[in-house]
Write a structure and sequence with these properties.
144 residues, mainly beta, five-stranded antiparallel beta sheet, four-stranded antiparallel beta sheet, 1 helix, disordered N terminus
């Protein structure tokens, strides 16, 4: 599919969608990685956005704070969602399935999530870019 096949995305977002089609960084900070799981942290200030990234592994996310966000899923139109602290969603992907999306905080308060990817899934994990390694929250750099 080309960016012209996504009329709901403006040209800048369509270009980012194409550029990040295989971005495996599903959070801003990789907290932990084992042979079974990757644990990601996401904190978005009001107006802040995490760019397009690809989910291929079974995973779950938990909202640590309440808030509102907007997302474009698989190049479709923007969708808004409300989250409550503790809200959790589990996702599964069959072989060859994936989801490509972004997430923008459109609320008035910081929005924070933990995402856990199960490395033992129907699809192999995407390789992480150089320099993306598990670290604490105070290390100062974020995933691309």
């Amino acid at each position: 599919m080309t960016s012209s096949a996504r009329p709901s995305l403006d040209p800048a977002l369509a270009a980012e969608f194409e550029r990040n089609a295989f971005n495996p960084c599903v959070g801003t900070v990789l907290l932990s990685e084992s042979d079974r799981a990757r644990v990601w942290y996401i904190r978005l200030e009001p107006g802040e956005r995490i760019g397009f990234h690809r989910h291929v592994l079974d995973y779950f996310w938990t909202a640590l704070t309440a808030g509102r966000a907007r997302s474009h899923v698989d190049g479709g139109p923007a969708r808004e969602a409300r989250y409550v602290a503790g809200q959790t969603s589990h996702m599964r992907f069959a072989p060859g399935e994936f989801m490509l999306h972004d997430l923008q905080n459109v609320g008035d308060t910081p929005l924070t999530f933990i995402t856990v990817e199960h490395l033992e899934s129907a699809n192999p994990p995407l390789p992480l870019p150089p320099g993306v390694t598990p670290r604490g929250l105070d290390a100062g750099t974020v995933a691309p």
